[in-house]
Each structure stands twice: as structure tokens, then as C-alpha cells.
Amino acid sequence: IHTSYLLLLVLLQLVSAQYEYLGYPPSYPDPEHEHYQAPQLPADVPRIQLRLAGDKRKHNEGRVEVFYDGQWGTMCDDDFSQHAAQVVCRELGYVDAVSWSPSSKYGKGEGPIWFDNLHCTGKERTVAQCPSNGIGISDCKHTEDVGVVCSDKRIPGFKFVNFLPNHVESLDIQVEDVRIRAILSSYRKRVPVTEGYVEIKDGGRWKQICNADWTPHNSRKKYNERVYRMFARRRKPTYWDFSVNCTGAEAHLSSCKLGQQTEAVTNGTCVKGLPVVVSCVPGRAFAPTPMTGFRKAFRQEQPLVRLRGGAIVGEGRVEVLKNGEWGTICDDSWNLGSATVVCRELGYGTAKEALNGGRLGQGMGPVHMNEVQCSGFEKSITECPFNKETVDCSHEEDAGVRCNIPAMGFQERLRLSGGRSPYEGRVEVLTERNGSLVWGTVCSEGWGIMEAMVVCRQLGLGFAKNAFQETWYWAGQVSADAVVMSGVRCSGTEMTLSHCLHHGENLQCPRGGGRHAAGVSCSDTAPDLVLNPQVVEQTTYMEDRPMFMLQCAYEEKCLASTSNSVPANSYRRLLRFSSQIHNNGQSDFKPKANRESWVWHDCHRHYHSMEVFTLYDLYSLNGTKVAEGHKASFCLEDSECDEGIEKKYECANFGDQGITVGCWDTYRHDIDCQWVDITDVSPGDYIFRIVINPNYEVPESDYSNNIVKCRCRYDGHRIWMYNCHNGGSLNEETEQQFPGLISNQVTHR
Asked: What confidence tens digit (pLDDT) does each residue in 622-636 have?
């Protein structure tokens, strides 16, 4: 049957050989979850897909939306139960359901109401197996749309699967996987694989694609066809039943049209006699040898797009540079095609997922683009048509992406051992010793949250939750007790632990390995503290305050050292301001120490949950520090929250401390230590800087925005604060006007 215009909607995961899903490692000690298998559904069960959507929500909650028959719709809350919520959450890849909400708590959806009067037992593999009125049969309105809250924990090994088959002309075509297999010996040892046969896994067997309908739109880089033709003659290919015809703008092969069916001829090859071969160019981050000479000779251009807030390589909130300032993209009309343009621009593969609703954290600053409409052929997202009107957009609608990335084998050289779950354990590294590969531990001296961040990223386990310098409570592999890596120092952005600074073969670890080896625990989500720069700028003023009114502040070392030898009736000149600290991440910000270890300060009559929560510094224009201050977190609480979010943390009566997602904590200008002592500072121009969580005591998804910088002018009588902005929110040229203060890491590592 000739099916030139048949749309192929296949079960496609670009995973194992050329592309990998980085949510979880492919092989883990826990045998129960070692090989996640998508549920095998009977042929008569409708194929659906689910997603969570709606207003004021975290990544693991929202209105339940169903994709069926080419349309997204919703579920009605009639007869919905915790059992149904359990099935929904597990189908979405979460371990469990926490709760469910009726009456369109997350806003009214659109389209058909696909399910009504669901009666699930909780054991179904998909909602489509639950008894109901029948798919599409409902008497509900969208005011009855149901929502769920799923557990934070993901099912280890879970991979998003497209179950939607192709039912055109009674064909039900499903493909298990796609890969590029290196054929020539010169490419077999290269990482990543960049050239070879395109192979489709069908019925458990890898098959080649006939190049009958393959065009330069499918892959553009040229290769040596003569060599591959010779190879195909020597080794008989096994062809898939269909050829493939792409336009070149598709996000993945599943969106391409099927070409003609393969015609078997006497020599066992397809019409043109050659399996499809592609040759790819790896992105900058994955190039085998960096072009160091080029980088020295030419200054790299400022990128126009970046990803922020993602746990793993190739995912994050999309931010674009416009008029010298970084901003976000509104998720109206955001789709896989536009997301693919972003991914390719950044040197990744096509987009795996187009995310909406600020699922990877909310940005700060302007929303630059709305209703982006890419054709798929653009080289940059900035070339795509879009609506400049963003009045109705907020950062709750920030768009994000998850990109396919090459299989680099990073996860095979690192493992966590001895932990209670796949998310924790002693860090063990595979390294070469005396000509053979051996597993060993990492020296824990200097081991901190930045190093843990890299480990969790390399293993695809999300963000760091804790970094451990002792792991005696985790019985790792005895054969791997010896230290094979020491002196590890990471900036936190590296793709693998081996990319961090370390001692190499010159190991130095007096503590030894074993019980003193480095360990980590990881989490799918993390908070993200961002300080509001406008509040700092608008509330700054100067006060002369007598020493006898500063005794508590003096005891907490909030004054300059010269205050040690001044009389009680002298004055200190204080630069005062307010701090408004938002949690724009995906989980609550909580102090590292539990309440039993909080420190009581008798003078101020309160507990400190973090001894140093913020640093306040004044620098000369050449980067020399001229004055400093600090603030302990005597009370981390929800001062205010976005509409629809309830306050959770309150310090009164020795209550829990923290900052809820979508809330902010305000340290007012009139409280003790909310200042910098500038008594000894001469008039002039300065740079003022605030750093939140400066010692990385609490893990966050993004530390680059923990810093606020301002220009400051002091004439001896008055003080002005201007050009306040978050770290990394402006282009490189503007940032260079703040010497030595580019990032949080530079100062503290």
C-alpha cells in the first residue's frame, strides 16, 4: 500500500543509543526498578496522554488534561476518588497521589471533557481502563474540572512514552526506539556517536530505513556514500517496512510522513540499495575537542538564548536577551516546534518536551516574547514571529524546554552506593588504574553542595539535596573503598565530576576513603531564592545612630571593627535598606539546621536558624571591599504570597521557618543588622552587593540569581542607589561594569 501522506504517530523515545532521557540512570542497584517497562495495554483500550496544567501550581499538581482523538480536554470531578488520582499520578510518572481537588481549583480547561464518573480501583495502568460513562460522554461543565496533587517523588526509571498510534487506513504502527549506529571503525569509539545508520527498533529487532524517500531535509551533513554502499553489499541490511519522508522542521522522526513500503528484491536491499545514513555535528558542549585556538583568536558572541532552573543538561526555563536585559517567554502557543528551535540553537538535539506554567521555576525581569510561532527552520528563537504584547502574561506562564542530548556515557562512570534509595549514597567513580578500570571513592575533604550538584546532574537525579563528608552509615562496595579522586572543586555547572578541578593522579587524602568518603542525596526539585532589586533601590537611606542603641547589633558583630573602641555616646553611620526575598523555585526553602540546633540570641530574644543568611558589601569601583555587613536568618517566614497561595511558615511561638514556593520574606529596613556600617567610608562612587545563602548551606536550583548589585554614590551627607539588578540579568557588557562581582561563586569558592 502506498502511504506517502500517512502521518506517523509512533511510540518513540530517543533514548538508548543516540539520545538518553536524563531523569534517572539506566541501571541502578535496586533490582526492583532496574528496568522500567511501559505498560502493555490491550488493543481495545483507548490510547491517551495526560498532563497537568492550570494556574498557581507546582510542577507536580494541576488540572488533569487528557489528549485523545487529536484534542486536549479535561476530566470531570463527578465520582472522582483518591484511587483515580493514584492512577493519574502513576501514569504521569509519580510514585503516589497526595490529594485531588474538585471544582476547577486550577482554573477552567478547554475542549472536550473526555472522562466523567470515573470508578478506578487504583490498580489500573491507565485512566482509560477505569470504568466510566465512556470516553467523551459527559454532562459536566469546565467548572467541574478535576485537579490532582502528586507526590514529589518520581518513579525511578520512568520515561515519558507517546502511546498514540497511527490508525489511518487501519494501520497501527508503533516503534520502540530509534538510534544512530556507528558503522565505520573510525566512528565506533567516538562519543557521542555522530555518523552511522539510522535504525528503528521494531518487534525487539533493530532495523535500517530504506533511503528511497530520504532527502537532504532529513539530515544535511554529507558523508562518504561510496564506503557505506560497499559495507551494505558485504553485510545484508534488515529493512524496516517503511521509508521516511521529513520536511526538516519536525521535532522528531515520529512527526515525519511515511514513504513507500520497502520492496524486497533479489539482492535483499531496497530500491536505491542503501540504508539511511546520517552524519551529525555535535553541539558545543559535546564536541570531542574544544576549538581552543578559535576561542583565543576570536571573542565569542553573546548568546541570545539560555536555559535556567533545570536540574539536568538540556532543560530549563527559556530566557532571551533583548535590549541588553534577559527576560522570559510567555507560554501562550508554546509548542514542540518552537522548543526545538531553542534546543538546536543551544547545540542540543530536538526538543523532547515543551513545558508551560513556569514548571521549571519562575524568572524575574521582563517577559520578552508571547505567542511564539516558529516554522522550525529558524536558526534562533529570536527569528520566530511573536506577539510583542505581553500585558496578560506573568512569570507563572514562563515557558521551558527539555531537549534531547547525545548519549555521552556519563552515567556509566559514576554511581551511588549503599543508600536507602537510588537518590542517595556514597559517591563511587570508575577510573583507570594500572591499565584496568576500577571503582573507587572520592575524598570528602572540601566536599560541598556544588560538587554534589554535579554528581546529581551527571546521574540524572535532579538537584543536590545534601552533601556528606562522612558515609559510614552507607555500606558501599568494600572493593571500592580506596580513594581514586581527591581535591575536587566544582563551580556547580559542570556536566560531569571529571570536568571539575581535581588532583588527577596525585591523590592527597589524609582522611582516606571508606567511612570518610564523599556522599550525596538528590532531589527532583529545589528552591530558588531571588531578591527583588527594585525594593533595595527604593528603600535605601542613611541613618546616624548612637552606639548605646546598638548594643545587640554590636554583640552580633553587625558593626565595623572600629566600633570596638568608641564611646557609647558616639554615632555610627548606617546604610539601611529593605530586602524582599522571593522563592521562585519548585520546592520550599528551609534552613539546613533543624529547630533543635537553632541558636538562641538572648539580646535580640530570637533564634537564628542560619548564622549567615545574607551578606551586604560595599566595594570600590576597582573591586576592593570598603565596608561589609551580614544578616543571620533570625526568622525565615512567608511575609506575603502570590494570589491563591497560602502562607505556611511563621516564626511566632517557635514555629517552622522557611519560604514557600510563590511567597517572599521581607527583612524591613528598620530591623537590626539590616544595614552596612559606612562610618569609615569616604565620599565617592561605589558598588553595593547583596548575596543570599552565600555559603550554599541550602541547595538551590540556580545560585547565579542569588546576588543583587547596585551602583552607589555617597557625597558624605546623602546616598543614592541606582541601576540595581540581579546577577546575570543583564548582558555581559553591562556586567563588566561591576569588576570582580560577576557571580556568587567567584567570591566564595
From this structure: 889 999 888 766 678
- Distance, CA of 244 to CA of 339 (rounded, Å): 23
Q: Which amino acid is at 146?
A: V
Q: What backbone phi and psi angles, to 5 degrees, belong to 560? A: -65, 155
**How far from chain centre, in Å, is Cα 688?**
30
pLDDT in tens, 81-90: 999 999 999 9
Q: How would you class 716 by CB atoms within 10 Å of its CB: exposed for 0-12, middle for 13-18, buried for 19 or more? A: exposed
Peptide bond into 385 cis (omega under 30): no
User: Which SS3 state, helix, strand or coil, does residue 687 take?
Assistant: strand
By the 8 A CB rule, do 320 and 368 touch?
Answer: yes
Q: Which three cell numbers stand for residue 66?
A: 487528557
**Residue 216: Cβ-neighbour burial (10 angstroms; 0-12, 13-18, 19+):** exposed
Q: Single out the residue of 642, 518, 663, 683 nearest to residue 589, CA to CA.
A: 663
Q: Kindly give, in sequence order, each residue whose CB lies less than 8 Å from that of residue 600, ignoring residues fewer than 6 positions away.
A: 606, 607
Distance CA 709, CA 699 (A): 22
Q: Provide the Cα torsion 546, 547, 552, 555; round to 10°.
A: 150
Cβ-based neighbour number of residue 132 at 10 Å: 22
The 3-state DSSP class for residue 239 equals strand
For the cut 50, the answer to whether the pLDDT of residue 115 exceeds it is yes
pLDDT digits (tens, 9 = 90+) for 491-549: 888 889 999 999 988 889 988 888 889 999 999 889 999 999 999 999 999 999 999 89
CB-count burial class (<10 Å; 0-12, 13-18, 19+) for 189 = exposed
pLDDT at 155: 80
Residue owning grid cell 498514540: 164
Q: Is 379 exposed, middle or buried (0-12, 13-18, 19+ CB in 10 A)?
A: exposed
Element (H, E) at 197: strand 195-202
Q: Is the pLDDT of residue 154 over 80?
A: no
Q: What separation, in Å, do the N-terminal and C-terminal C-alpha atoms of the chain show? A: 65
Beta strands in 554-683 (DSSP E): 571-576, 579-583, 599-601, 606-608, 610-619, 625-633, 640-641, 663-667, 675-677
Cell readout for 40 is 502493555
Nearest-angstrom CA–CA distance, 169 and 5: 11
Cα angle, residue 46 at apex, residues 42 and 50 outer, rounded to 5°: 115
Query: What's the rounded Cα separation, in Å, for the pair 674 and 662?
Result: 23
Q: Is 451 helix (H, G, I), strand (E, B) or coil?
A: helix
Instruction: Please state, in angstroms and rounded to a whole number, the distance separating the CA atoms of residues 492 and 499.
Output: 10
**649 vs 662: CA distance, rounded Å:** 12
Q: Which of 380, 330, 376 is nearest to 355 (CA)?
A: 330
Which of these ranges, 9-13, 117-121, 376-380, has the smallest mean pLDDT? 9-13
Buried b (16+ CB within 10 A) or exposed e, 114-126: bbbbbebeeebeb
323 half-sphere exposure, CB direction, 13 A CA radius: 6
Cα dihedral angle (180, 185, 186, 192), rounded to 10 degrees? 30
pLDDT of residue 519: 95
Rounded to two decimals, the pTM is 0.72
For 65-74, 266-275, 568-577, 598-607, which range has the lowest pLDDT when averaged over its residues?
266-275
Interacting residues of 54 by C-beta distance below 8 A, sequence separation 6+: 62, 63, 105, 106, 107, 109, 147, 357
Beta bridge partners of 207: 200
Q: Which CA distances in Å does 195 have to 81, 186, 233?
A: 51, 10, 19
